[in-house]
Design goal:
The complex is a heterodimer of chains A (336) and B (481). Chain A is mainly beta. Chain A has 3 helices and 24 strands. Classes of the chains: A mainly beta (336), B mainly alpha (481).
């Protein structure tokens, strides 16, 4: 029996540019968040050999560049292994760092406010804070991934409670990663190494789980992020399958997108300024006939496809942003 | 005359085999191999199971730069994880062997992703038919751009790849003519990569802009292939690249050349390759043994090696500790002994850099001739790097591998204090049945005496054993495999 699907997505735009030394663009970005005024924040984790690319960049849906802040280091406001960002209703931005085991707060002007966090497995301690989300009450949910749990804090960093433990039973986690709070308050967690998404009430009570390991519709390979729109449609960054899957609120499969990026204005500007690349690109076939079917390899060889789609977030009522670590960009889709 | 079976124990022989086919053995690995016996260990080496290395998904989650593998610290350290954590180190030894012979460098091709794909190919084809391997090599995108075959056109040949497959990869100088080089190049016209103009421009410009690198893929451009008649190594026909490889593989010079490389890597240090046209092999009998296996087994590299490992030549006393370890062997062997890299860590970059400082940048050989090996590995600077790295790596009693060694010593001596001679014997045994000269051993014993009583069950004893292990990996003998 086939289920009639209600949600289809159409690619509309690409924002991004590889910026290993910082500046306009991103470098191995790992998370994306949208502020209520429409500003888009992108967290670049960067990598060994070019740590100048580490930081948080600010852009908007029309490709304006609003600068960057933070950077690599251990000082206040800096990061080492940044994993996630979230923005609360007061426009304060929270940054998780899994190496320094801390959460850093920035104000609405991107100034450092404070940080907290110590290593450990007790209440209020971290072993790898990764995904972040603001819950329905304005508290901060932190995926404490190597402790296989979600912790809840006040917006000022006071520990409240936690849920989850290591395992594969309902409500248990295996190195969870992304987290989101749906408009109705339901909490969604990307249970990364269990290849499933789990749902919890706003109090952290298990509701259900969806997905198993594989490449088929409704199956996942290391899902890293989840987003939910106002109609309850669920978007999952199926990280190792190099795609985004869409479901309705009853987990009925809707569609898959795997990316079809074109040149962003920043990328086009670069190509225009480099005549040799421009000439070579005129005969460039973005979809060459491939002799492999392994998904990572397919994406590595096909520029328009997602390559390591790590984070998804909604934008307004009908758009979806999909951030790609290995291509230093995000693609924008809208509901058909 | 001594035979293999009366030199030391079978465990000594297995340790010798594991030094050559891997990176030495931890006590646990040696125990396991000992239970299989020498032949059983050989069977397992040639029929390996899952590598069961540190999972790639974990590596890529923590090292964002390991997602595209573009720059040398990323690609080199990605391979380093596999080298240190694999359960099938023979595959890596084979990959390192072909990486040296078919030296391709990220310094030119820039893109580490395709270098890692080349290493994958060596794992897959490295012990199979030499013909299959040469075909894969000729189609390998990294090799194509490394030796400019994308510029080898039917109306304007570039002979770089045609020359090197004969000179450096399969036959050696003196076994072909300049005309053979040109005819060989003609046969490989049209062997290129998809989107070649853009990809080669990106390689030259060496930038991740706008969206990082796009991995390369082999493409055969029939319209650019010279299908005219060619005369190559005495045969005439409308040869393709595959035909040329067939002719190369059946030429008697080919297995002689390959066998000498195998001997150098797996048996004992040979003369540097540039001297081979003028000086015969050190051990002609060993070379002939492998040549015979090559022709008897459809050009199988695995058959050549198995014949060698089963021979008394390989097992003989003169071949034990007869090679200077490569930097990769020192770094990887020491990290495996210490039990490092159970989880992604920035230390992987330091280990990869250490290998570089010792003279072997993974995926970055110094030239198209690869690394010479042997005495070339050793200089005053590289020796200091080797000793410092090994000593630092071993010097932590809390590491899994060091704890295991200390635990085994404690089990052997439940009553507590261990006398210095026994402790030195134990430690040499547990670092892979290392054999040292009498003077070295006496020095180690003296060191232990100076430390006072050693009870391995105590923290103090563990510290003293760790210090002894640091001294052992600093010896001249530890640099030999």
């Amino acid at each position: 029996m086939t289920t009639e699907t209600q949600k289809q997505l159409k690619y509309i735009d690409t924002n991004g540019f590889g910026a290993a030394q910082g500046g306009r663009g991103y470098h191995f970005p790992v998370d994306i968040a949208v502020r209520k005024d429409g500003l888009i924040y992108v967290l670049s984790r960067s990598g060994q050999g070019s740590l100048n690319g580490t930081g948080i960049s600010v852009t908007d849906i029309d490709h304006h560049w609003h600068g960057e802040f933070s950077g690599y280091g251990t000082a206040d406001g800096q990061m080492q292994w940044g994993t996630a960002i979230a923005i609360d209703s007061s426009d304060r931005l929270f940054l998780a760092d899994e190496k320094m085991q801390r959460i850093t707060i920035f104000d609405l002007d991107n100034n450092y406010v404070s940080h907290w966090g110590t290593a450990g497995s007790g209440p209020g301690e971290f072993d790898g804070p990764s995904g972040l989300s603001i819950d329905a009450d304005g508290n901060l949910l932190v995926v404490d991934h190597k402790n296989h749990r979600v912790q809840r804090y006040t917006a000022d960093g006071e520990y409240i409670d936690s849920f989850g433990s290591e395992g594969s039973a309902s409500g248990q986690f295996n190195y969870p990663w992304g987290i989101t709070t749906a408009p109705d308050g339901t909490i969604y967690v990307a249970d990364w190494r269990n290849d499933r998404i789990q749902r919890f009430t706003s109090d952290g009570v298990f509701i259900d789980a969806h997905g198993d390991s594989g490449e088929g519709d409704g199956q996942f390979s290391r899902p890293s992020s989840v987003a939910v729109d106002h109609d309850g449609f669920i978007y999952v960054a199926d990280w190792q399958n190099q795609r985004v899957q869409v479901f309705d609120k009853e987990w009925n499969f809707q569609t898959i997108v795997r990316g079809e990026a074109g040149l962003s204005p920043w990328a086009a500007e670069y190509i225009d300024a480099n005549k040799d690349e421009k000439i070579a690109r005129e005969v460039f076939n973005p979809y060459p006939k491939l002799d492999v079917d392994e998904l990572y390899e397919v994406s590595a060889r096909t520029e328009p496809y997602f390559w390591v789609p790590v984070s998804v977030t909604t934008y307004g009522d009908d758009r979806l942003l999909v951030l790609e670590t290995a291509r230093h960009r995000f693609q924008i889709f809208e509901t058909v | 005359m001594a035979t293999a079976t009366n030199i030391g124990t079978e465990l000594d022989l297995i340790a010798h085999l594991l030094r050559r086919t891997g990176f030495g053995a931890t006590p646990g690995e040696l125990e396991e191999a000992g239970a299989l016996g020498y032949e059983g260990t050989l069977d397992r080496l040639f029929n390996p199971g899952d590598a069961d290395a540190l999972p790639v998904d974990l590596i890529r989650r923590y090292h964002a730069d390991h997602n595209d593998l573009r720059i040398p610290p990323s690609s080199g350290s990605f391979w380093m994880y596999r080298l240190v954590t694999t359960k099938t180190p023979f595959e890596e030894k084979i990959a390192l062997f072909w990486h040296r012979v078919f030296a391709t460098g990220q310094t030119k091709v820039i893109q580490g992703k395709v270098m890692i794909s080349q290493i994958d190919m060596f794992r897959k084809y490295g012990l199979g038919s030499f013909r299959d391997l040469l075909i894969q090599l000729s189609k390998d995108p990294a090799m194509i751009l490394w030796l400019d075959n994308q510029d080898n056109h039917k109306d304007n040949i570039n002979e770089n790849y045609g020359r090197e497959i004969l000179e450096l990869f399969a036959m050696g100088v003196g076994n072909y003519t300049e005309d053979d080089v040109k005819e060989c190049a003609r046969a490989f016209t049209g062997w290129t990569i998809a989107n070649m103009p853009y990809m080669s421009t990106k390689m030259r410009n060496n930038t991740l802009r706008p969206y990082g690198y796009i991995a390369w893929q082999f493409e055969y451009d029939e319209s650019d292939h010279d299908d005219g008649e060619k005369t190559f190594l005495g045969e005439t026909g409308n040869f393709t690249g595959e035909d040329v490889i067939d002719i190369i593989c059946k030429n008697p010079a080919t297995p002689l050349f390959v066998a000498r490389h195998l001997y150098h890597h797996f048996v004992a240090d040979e003369l540097p390759v540039p001297q081979w046209p003028f000086e015969g092999p050190k051990d002609p009998e060993a070379i002939q043994l492998m040549v015979d296996a090559y022709f008897a087994n459809d050009y199988s590299i695995g058959a050549m090696l198995r014949a060698m490992f089963e021979s008394d030549i390989f097992k003989s006393e003169s071949k034990r500790f007869a090679r200077i370890k490569s930097p990769a062997e020192v770094v990887v062997g020491t990290l495996r002994l210490a039990g490092d890299f159970d989880w992604p860590t920035d230390d992987v970059y330091k280990a990869t850099a250490a290998c570089n400082y010792m003279g072997q940048q993974l995926l970055g050989p110094t030239s198209v001739e690869g690394w010479m090996g042997g005495d070339d590995w050793i200089s005053t600077g590289s020796m200091v790097q080797r000793i410092n790295f090994a000593s630092d790596t071993i010097g932590n009693p809390d590491k899994r591998g060091i704890k295991a060694i200390i635990g085994r010593i404690a089990d052997r001596h439940p009553s507590g204090n261990v006398d210095p001679e026994a402790l030195v014997e134990d430690c040499l045994d547990l670092v892979g049945r290392l054999r040292v000269e009498d003077g070295t051993q006496e020095g180690l014993v003296e060191f232990v005496r100076e430390q006072g009583d050693v009870d391995p069950a105590t923290e103090d004893g563990a510290g003293k054993i760790t210090s002894l292990l640091q001294l052992i990996v600093s010896t001249r003998e530890y640099q030999l495999a």
